[in-house]
Structure formats: C-alpha cells, structure tokens
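hey can u run this one w/ guanosine-5'-triphosphate bound, need the structure tokens asap thx
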Amino acid sequence: MTEEKSSFKSGFVAIVGRTNVGKSTLLNKLAGRKVAIVSEKPQTTRNKILCVLNREDSQVIFLDTPGIHKPKYRLGEQMVQQALGTLKEVDAVLFLVEANLPPGPGDNYIMRQFQDLATPVLLVINKIDLVRREELLPLIEQYSRMYNFSEIVPVSALTGENLSRLLDAVTGYLPEGPKYFPEDMVTDRPETFIITELIREKVLHLTSEEVPHSVAVVIEEMENRPNGVVAVRSIIYTEKESQKAILIGKGGQLLKKIGQAAREEIERLLGAKVFLELWVKVKPGWRNKEAQIRNLGYRDEE
Ligand SMILES: Nc1nc2c(ncn2[C@@H]2O[C@H](COP(=O)(O)OP(=O)(O)OP(=O)(O)O)[C@@H](O)[C@H]2O)c(=O)[nH]1
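ok here u go:
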C-alpha cells in the first residue's frame, strides 16, 4: 500500500440505476483519460470494479452491484442478499436517474432496496442537458419525498456539467484511507491486486517492526466455487526464517488473525463469501515489485 499523507481519502462507491440512465457515459466521463482499471469480465455474483478514479487527495473505487437492479429474470435470493450486503458496506451509493423522465417502476424498485440502509445515498439526476432548469426543481422535490437522500446532484454525463461538484460531494463521504491501487496500473484483474494489498496491509498492522515492510503477497490460486464461495490461496513471502516465525505466531495465532481480518475485507470487496488460505514462505531477496508483476500477470483457468 502506498504511504500517503493522513488526509488522503479513499473508499468504495456503489453505482446503481436502471438501464439506460447513463452509467457508462458517466463513468467514462469521470475517468476521462485517467482511467486506471476497467474490468471487462462479466461477473454475475461478485461486485465488479467499474473504475478507479484518482484525484490529488483521493481515490474512489466505483463498484457495480448487479443484484440491485430490477431483475430481468428471477435472481437468486442469495445474490440479492449479497448485493444488499454490499450497499451496507460501501462508503456511499450513487443512485442514477434521468432528468427527462419521472421516477418509474425501475427507479422505485431500486429505491425500495435503500430502506433501512445507513449508507449515504446520493441521488444523481443525469441528462440535465435535455431539460429546462424550471423542470428540474419539481423533479428534485418529487425524489426527495421518496427517499431521504444525503445529497441531490443534477449532472450531465454527456457535457460534463456539474461532474466536479459530484466528485467533491462523493469525496466528502469517504474515510481517510490508503491509495489501494497504483495510479498507472492497467489490468483486467483488479480484484487480485487489491486482495494482495489487503492481506499485506493486515500483515503490517498486526506485526511489529521486526517484520519489515518488504513482505510480498502473491495469489497462487483464486477460484469461484459453485456454492458461491470464492476460494483464495495466497502466499506471504518473508526474507528470513525469523520473520516467518513471527508472522505465524505461537500456535499459528497471528497468521490466523491476519487471515481473519483480511478475509472480512475481501468479502466486502467481492460481495461474496471467501475461503482464504494463507501460507508463509521464506524467499530471501524477494522484492515486492516482483510480486506485483506476477500478480498482474495472473491468469485463472478459463
Ligand atoms: N443527452 C444526454 N444523453 C446521455 C447523457 N448520459 C448518457 N446519455 C445517453 O443515454 C444513453 C444510455 O447511456 P449509457 O451510458 O449507455 O447508459 P447505461 O446506464 O450505462 O446503460 P446500460 O449499460 O444499459 O445500463 C446513451 O445514448 C447516452 O449517450 C446525458 O447526460 N445527456
């Protein structure tokens, strides 16, 4: 994890909205040429990282949560529950609607998922270039009667109007945190990268200075099991036997703690149950960079 000044903010933001509201257009415009990561792989039961937006003082990771949208076919209860779990755990939710249409059944369906949700929901009224100003106010009033939105931001994803205001608003809901992704990274496996970083972060938090910051984490295997569990096998490389012993701890206690803490966060990221297997190996001179390169080149059997 890159060291940042304490005021750096980062977090996860779920984007929801029915088809055609302009989700892709918005993301492309927000990311501009700075898009670091776009995952093309369709993932039906897992949260998909849509893009990672880097600003000077923040990093926003936008997630898609497929189970929230009005189902074209009957979604499994498990998938809906997972999606709702995601909404609970992200730092903010962006709910996209269209300025040129009144709230419809698709919008209502999504808003019903927000009931009892503590996460701030920002209403983004898109396509304001299609309506006159005086039409906007009644629409804003209509939506605010339907749900207690934390903020309402009218934008045009097409022209870019008000998008910087939207980003400022979103950043306001992010906690202080690390830069999860390097700015120049381009990969279609962002999850793999972030999982190694989460494990590494737990190692650093739960060990003393005797274990240097140069531990490397590699994902050996990642598999989506038919029961919806994502199985991850990961190796933590240390430089010396003594460091390995520290990491494992008495009776394996520390490694267990690291695994538990990392697993909870990986589950939050993927929106799925995770089975995490951690191994510690000694490899003198193993540099972190090599681990990253290896992870970026990671492939699964498909
Ligand atoms: N006038 C106008 N058109 C927009 C705006 N944003 C998106 N559109 C148009 O709306 C249509 C749908 O936009 P998309 O970005 O594909 O919508 P989406 O929500 O990603 O759609 P799905 O992928 O089907 O969920 C496209 O024709 C866009 O050009 C906007 O701010 N103003």
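The mean pLDDT is 79. anyway lmk if its weird
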